[in-house]
Amino acid sequence: MRILIAPDKFAGTLTAVEAAEAIAEGWRSVSPDTECDLVPLSDGGPGFVEVLHANLGGRRVSCSVTGPLGEPVTADYLLVGEGTLTAYIESAQACGLHLVPSEQRDPERATSYGVGELIDRAVAAGARTVVVGLGGSATNDGGAGMLAALGAQPSAQLCSGGAALARLSGAPDLSAARARTDGVTLVAATDVDSTLLGIHGASAVFGPQKGADADQVQRLDAALTTFALATDPAALREAPGSGAAGGLGYGLLLLGGTIESGVARVLGTVGFSGYATSADAVITGEGSFDFQSLRGKLPHGVAKVATEYGRACLVLAGNVAVGRREAVAAGITETYSLVDSAGSVEAALAQPAAELRALAAQVARRWRR
Asked: Transmembrane stretches, by residue range (predicted)?
């Protein structure tokens, strides 16, 4: 038997690489003759660079950039290829919510400036294509900070967080930022389809997750509206995905970038279909398998490929909140919960790798019958 093991991260407990290794170890403990292909995955959020490095190799470059509240943070970007280089950037490494203690979270102040610094470093290193994975951000500044880091003016207002955008008195000058990325293909990789503004926009949908109360959500949406009206004659703010990562998707569109499905981009880049054709079954997973997982997130993308090649697709997740009927309709053969197998949330969180190995062993026994 040959299985393809392709999980996302288990947020807060295991990286995608660690999860893939735990599943493989558990399966082999029961069925040592099974061939396991480990292909850890990401949808563009946290873990994006690590996953692509594990699959593609390349050179990881570490540098110090500006964090979401202005403090220096260490972030990596990945360079792949020879001659014509492609850079992969994970926005969460520069402006991620995990970088801000819960009591200090304030999307009115948080800036995406560090993402622009990463793009600038990658371009300086020779990258002609820059793919920015969006997700897990602490910011709500429409990508203004990122633009400021690339030379947009007035820098003082653009790099000071979402609230400062309300004080713009005219159209920002983006010419230097556009010149800095001239000739570079920019891609925003995300599976968030929110637009920049309104009830389905960056502020309303994701602001509360970043610490914004109801009043702050209204102020942030008004500030982004001011920014959009000053920068966007082409209605880019209405593009699906423009609201991703607090509007970073919009900022990249202003530079002539495109928005692509993060799952599709990663699956295509690692050659996932080639692995699926030779597998007898596909195993994927994530921390919480819920209704959002069926709306284009990674397990849904993996299941779509598995179904295309007639392969069983199993989901091993920290918690399963999707009914069997909905899962089967999405191409998922069976789902298994780490919380159920461990006996409690506390037990699952205490030893996530060990519990995931044990769950994979249980599934292997079932599938060997």
From this structure: none
